[in-house]
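Entry:
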Amino acid sequence: MELFYNPFFTGQAYVNLAKSPVLFDAKIVNTRGLCSIIALHAGICSEVFDYGKRFVDYFSATKKYMAKNPHSIIESSFNIDKLNTVKKCLEWRDALAAAGWNKNSPAPSERIKLLCGIEEYFHDKSYGEQLLKIIEAVQNGCRLPDFKIVTASYYEYFSPAEVRLLEALKKRGVCVTDKETEEQNNNISKILSVLNGKENVELNLNDESFEIWNFAEKDEALKYLSRLESNEFDVWINADNKEFDNWHYLEGKKLSGSQISGVPLPPEKIDEALAIAEKDSDEISGSEMEFLTEVLSSSNSINQYPAQVGCKNIINSFSDFCDLAEKTIWCDFYQSGQVEKLTYSFLSPVEKDGFRESLSLWDEKKERKYLRNLLLTPFSKTQKKLVLVTLDKIGSADAPKSPVFIQLKKYFEDKKEPNNFKKNKIYPFVKQKKIAQDLYEDINKIDNRMESKQEFIHIKNTEYI
């Protein structure tokens, strides 16, 4: 069995089906998926409850702690917003537990003492703790499946526990390899070398492998891109596909599958969730657990369109590549690469120093390198054509600029006139795109307005009904 593994895999990842038309003995997994496969073959029982159940149990544990310690450090927050206070504490708790923390670990601050106190009443395990249990079992010689792991060449920058798991598997004879990248001598590879810090790189003006498509406005970009055929690119990168699929629908194109995210919750739902959380955990039904999970999710969403056969091959994340692609278009490049929140950024310097000897915290430099490598995946995984999409405006506001674009613009700026973009060496590769004028046509304005003194409604243009 071959496993394509990256902790950041989010869902559908690109696989070159021309080379592997049937993934009969292969799987695409993140860390949770890899642990599940190992646990299944090793006979390890390590149940992790769904988020709703774990939240209710942690809410109950926090209430018990607060009953005995009413003036704790979270007193004011807990009284104002119980749900989000408990949610944040559970988030901190799980991040620390993934590094080996437990209630007996050092407590270098009042906040950590609070988490240790709540832990006295909380016994559910997280996926991070499941990973630590799997590592221990592998090191102790548990049964393993016959498999090969294909992962990123930069896996030494994964979280400490994920690195330990891969190293333990290698010692047990499991083949852990990175997917070989075929070195290309074109502008894509040159741009990648620039982004990796190489100096004095010159782009080939006759090479069309790398382009930046700039649009005046977001709607113009969506209209233009939606009209392109699905086979014009092997991979289409687009995190939020809702508006793109709306245009596919209007154009009569195959739908790629999309969700409506960021759906606001009415206040009554939040009140209902709080009422459920206040119950004894034994009284809560499965449907109530699902409801809690929905309410507490950081990004509420509902399905809009299912994917159709023959649609554009869209991946939600720029890192979701298992194979090399010939042609890639990065539809939301303009907003990609913003500063990511690091896993242990919530810890103060005092807390980090206090845990330095006892916990395996993810080194910030390594985590940044990991995130940087993820961001550069489209450059390293695309061979013949890479298009980055940029915008001038989103509505009336200026569109964000990707840090990658800013870095390239700075690197290739004219030394004498750095602010003159037309003299920038990246400028020849920026193509201004818009809908062809011959695709537009004039239409008659529909006028069914009522006169101010009109007593009855008279519809003049009945042919539009």
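The chain has a mean pLDDT of 89.
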